[in-house]
Amino acid sequence: MTNTIEITKAQTSKIHEVDFENLSFGKVFTDHMFICDFKNGEWQQPEITPYAPLTLDPSARVFHYGQAVFEGMKAFKDDANKVWLFRPEDNLLRINKSAERLAMPEFPKDVFMEGLKALINLDEAWVKPGFGNSLYIRPFVIATEPAIAASPALEYKFLIICSPAQSYYSGDVRVLIAEQFSRSANGGVGFAKAAGNYAAQFYPTSLANQEGFQQIIWTDADTHEFLEEAGTMNVFFRINDTLVTAPTNERILDGITRKSIIQIAQDSGIAVEVRPIKVSELIEASKSGALKEIFGSGTAAVVSPISAFSYKGDVFEIPKDVKSFSSIFKEKLLNIQYNKSEDPYGWRQSI
Ligand SMILES: *Cc1c(COP(=O)(O)O)cnc(C)c1O
Question: In this predicted structure, what is the pLDDT of residue 3?
Fold first, then answer.
């Protein structure tokens, strides 16, 4: 396979039709997309083309058996109009890990990095400067082979599409601790960014929404005793001045924001415990006043503070703290992402 990407530019740009002050997340896409087909056992010529609908055979396996994995990442523009990515290789490693679990082919890292950078260079005007503005990047892989036999497809498409985003304030996030439904199972695909994990979450989350909770804190499928993730984010608990988060395993997604926060916390002298944490411990900590914060972590919102949780009908409110750990982590991460501070970790990468 050749690494030289074939580029077909869009005739005109849609950028002037976009109201960048009023973006709703993930609805507007840039002028171009990256696309690469897999067939005859190998990835074919990678291309950048005008953003356009795909034509797929109705029997394409993705429609029937959900062979689909994806990633979420962002590009940021600094005050000198330079564009930066955040730990992009980690996204490629993870999409390949997800792909392996769904019996899909891995994508070569050099082609990914080259394609990603070429695509963002081409659509650079869509990355708006200013804190909070970013370009949300969605790489994904789907099984396209037209055949409904229940076995792994022999043909796939790898795509990257991009959507301009503003920082969003999610409002007060109140969460329900899962007692019945599960996000993932032992030996399952919880660690993978598999499309089906999201589909399976929509129904229980909509039930929680009806009860006035925006998200679910997922617990382990066996006992529902251990806290695992918050919605589609990893979850952190601050008990007194110690930060606690569950170790990643086959049921928990290994978030890049999560591991960055752990690193920053440790380097800021904050005690971090990566260990299983029980619902009962959380309730006791809440009752004694030791529970100071709960927050989710993920690329889209960086951190998402949680203001209350509910378990077996009881609601526990979490006091608001102006000097929260989550706001400290958010600021430190954003400063690295927007090139406003030193990056001792080498996480930031220019395009
Ligand atoms: C994507 C995702 C996360 C967050 O991962 P980041 O790399 O931090 O964006 C956490 N949990 C689940 C289930 C996810 O799908």
Answer: 62
Burial of 176 per CB tally in 10 Å (0-12, 13-18, 19+): buried
Q: What is the pTM assigned to this prediction?
A: 0.97
Pocket test for ligand 1, best of 69, 70, 89, 232 (most atoms within 8 A of CB): 232
Q: Which ranges constitute the DSSP H helices of 184-324?
A: 195-210, 256-267, 279-288
Chain centroid offset of residue 192 CA? 11
Cα 7 to middle of ligand 1, angstroms: 31
Query: Ligand 1 pocket check: which of 236, 258, 260 to mutate, most ligand atoms within 8 Å of Cβ?
Result: 258
Q: From 54, 49, 88, select the one nearest 71 (Cα to Cα).
A: 88
Give the model confidence (pLDDT) of 262-315 as tens digits.
999 999 999 999 999 999 999 999 999 999 999 999 999 999 999 999 999 999
The CA 135 to ligand 1 mean position distance, Å, reads 17
Tell me the mean pLDDT in the region 23-48. Answer: 97
Instruction: Determine the distance separating the centroid of ligand 1 and the alpha carbon of 20, expressed in angstroms.
Output: 26
Q: Is the four-CA dihedral 176, 237, 167, 231 of positive or negative sign?
A: negative
Q: Quick check: CB of 228 below 6 Å from ligand 1?
A: no
- Nearest Cα to Cα of residue 261 among 298, 229, 288: 298
Structural domains of the chain, with CATH:
6-165 (3.30.470.10), 173-337 (3.20.10.10)
Atom nearest to 257 CA in ligand 1: 8
Q: Which atom of ligand 1 is nearest to the CA of 258?
A: 8
Report pLDDT digits (tens) over 165-198.
998 776 789 999 999 999 999 999 999 999 999 9
Do 145 and 60 meet the contact criterion of CB atoms below 8 Å apart? Answer: yes
143 within 8 A of 60, measured Cβ to Cβ: yes
Q: Which helix (H) or strand (E) holds 119?
A: helix 109-122
Cβ–ligand 1 contact at 245 (below 6 Å)? no
Measured from the CA of 300, which atom of ligand 1 is nearest? 9
The rounded distance, in Å, linking the Cα atoms of 346 and 109 is: 18
